[in-house]
Amino acid sequence: MLITREMDYTLRVLRALYREGQLSAASVARLEHMPKAITLKVLNQLHAVGIVESRRGVCGGYFLRRPCEELTLYDLFRASGDEPLLNRCQQREYQCENLSREECAVCRELDRVQEILNAELRRTPLSELFA
């Protein structure tokens, strides 16, 4: 499954920050009906890759560092360290025990479909999904 539960949580966190601006982790969790621990985990991951920023203190909270107009679903896959691959044979380091990549018609077809999928995942900015 391409959209894992973690990716769903990531989208929900970003949607809350996009719509509301700066929020505490507790506020994000409440707005998006998510457990606070998972919300904090997602916020920390997004912070580590530079998508969100945080401020401490009474007026603190999390806010978007990169605008959702510039981010796509593809960017989120990349930020999570995963590529939305259709099959393991598409991994760069994968060595098939049966056929080379060039000899395998299945692999070539999956590569073709993968290019289309990647283009589609890059097509729509998150701001349009969250509007």
Features:
single chain, 131 residues, mainly alpha, two-stranded antiparallel ribbon, 2 strands, 52% helix, 6% strand, elongated
Number of helices: 6
Average pLDDT for all residues: 90
Subunit organisation of the chains: single chain
What letter string, H or E per element, gives the SSE order? HHHEEHHH
Major β-sheet profile: 2 strands, antiparallel
What report would you give on this structure?
The chain is mainly alpha-helical and 131 residues long. 52% of the residues lie in helices and 6% in strands. It has six helices and two strands. It has helices at residues 5-20, 25-32, 36-48, 73-79, 105-123, 126-130, and strands spanning 52-55, 61-64. It has a two-stranded antiparallel sheet. A hairpin with a 5-residue loop joins strand 1 and strand 2. Helix 1 crosses helix 2 and helix 1 crosses helix 3. It starts with a helix and ends with a helix. The mean pLDDT is 90.
List the helices and strands and how they pair.
Elements: H1 5-20, H2 25-32, H3 36-48, E1 52-55, E2 61-64, H4 73-79, H5 105-123, H6 126-130
Antiparallel strand pairs: 1-2
Helix pairs in contact: 1-2, 1-3, 2-3
Question: Summarize this, please?
Answer:
With 131 residues, the chain is mainly α. It has helices spanning 5-20, 25-32, 36-48, 73-79, 105-123, 126-130; strands spanning 52-55, 61-64.
